[in-house]
Write a structure and sequence with these properties.
The protein is mostly helical. It is 73% helix and 0% strand. It has one domain (7-233, 248-286). It is built from twelve helices and no strands. The two termini are 31 Å apart.
Length: 288
């Protein structure tokens, strides 16, 4: 049976899912202390705890997607048009170039990590991408679209709002790193920019698998510092802190480029088709 919700209830769901997402992730900390008695190695414990918590979150998010009837919005069970995958390969060409550059740069990090740690690293980052895309692109984004259904620039503003929520939640990392405001602000800007791209990618491709895949590959390509030995991490952080200022504008420029890519995709999407997938119809005369 279809779940009918008022606008205010949808807003409360957006807030609840956003905050619940962060609070649930904090369960990783006590879980580490529990499984640390059975597993050796700090990195192994950290990754294993992250995988377990995110697997539980995955089950909850799948339940919510089914409850809200958002399967059609994310392309689950939808038929595939002729030439569909060819069109998506063109859309994905530019991000795949950047991802490939990230992977091949310092490729030795993967080679020297060891098969066990590398496997955990890939599984963990897959689950990171999976639950973040399900929470923010598969649930919060369609809720925001429904909330703003009669507004102008519906899709663009909805994606931007969802991405800002996704980015702003990273400020909660200040509780763990209170002296790292600039570094965490950098995370917020990056998360917001890539959120716009991933939101545009979902709307353009009409299937959640594409943002999940790109998100996972970005994490695996640019998060490989986790695979370095602990003493090497310290050296890398020291070098990075001395070069941040010189590369800041280049990096911010890349973020803007990524966000613009998302905007371009969004502008090519028919809002009425998206509203139809959400069983949401409006009178054009009521648009604000």
């Amino acid at each position: 049976m279809k779940v009918e919700m008022s606008r205010s209830l949808k807003i409360r769901w957006v807030l609840a899912i956003s905050l619940g997402f962060v609070l649930f992730l904090n369960l990783v900390l006590p879980l580490r202390s529990i499984i640390g008695d059975f597993i050796e190695g700090e990195k192994t414990v950290r990754m294993a705890a992250g995988i377990i918590i995110r697997f539980i979150m995955f089950a909850i998010l799948v339940y919510l997607i089914r409850r809200f009837k958002f399967e059609k919005f994310i392309g689950i069970g939808a038929g595939i048009e002729k030439g569909f995958y060819m069109r998506q390969s063109i859309i994905l060409l530019i991000p795949m170039v950047f991802i490939t550059m990230g992977i091949i740069s310092d490729f030795s990090v993967y080679v020297n990590a060891g098969s066990g740690i590398l496997t955990l690293f890939l599984i963990e980052h897959f689950f990171v991408a999976l639950i973040e895309e399900l929470a923010f692109r598969a649930i919060i984004l369609p809720l925001v679209i429904q909330i703003r259904a009669n507004k102008k620039r519906l899709l663009l503003v909805s994606v931007c709002l969802t991405s800002l929520i996704f980015g702003a939640l990273h400020y909660l990392n200040l509780f763990r790193e209170p002296g790292n405001f600039s570094g965490i602000t950098f995370q917020v800007v990056f998360a917001s920019a890539i959120g716009i791209f991933l939101g545009g990618l979902l709307l353009r491709t009409r299937h959640i698998i594409f943002p999940i895949m790109i998100h996972f590959l970005v994490n695996a390509a640019f998060g490989k510092s986790e695979l370095r030995p602990e003493n090497e991490d310290l050296v890398t952080e020291a070098v990075g802190s001395s070069t941040d200022s010189s590369s800041l504008f280049v990096t911010l420029g890349l973020f803007v480029f990524v966000a613009i890519g998302g905007v371009v995709m969004i502008r090519k999407v028919d809002r009425n088709e998206i509203l139809n997938t959400l069983n949401t119809k409006i009178d054009s005369n009521e648009m604000e």
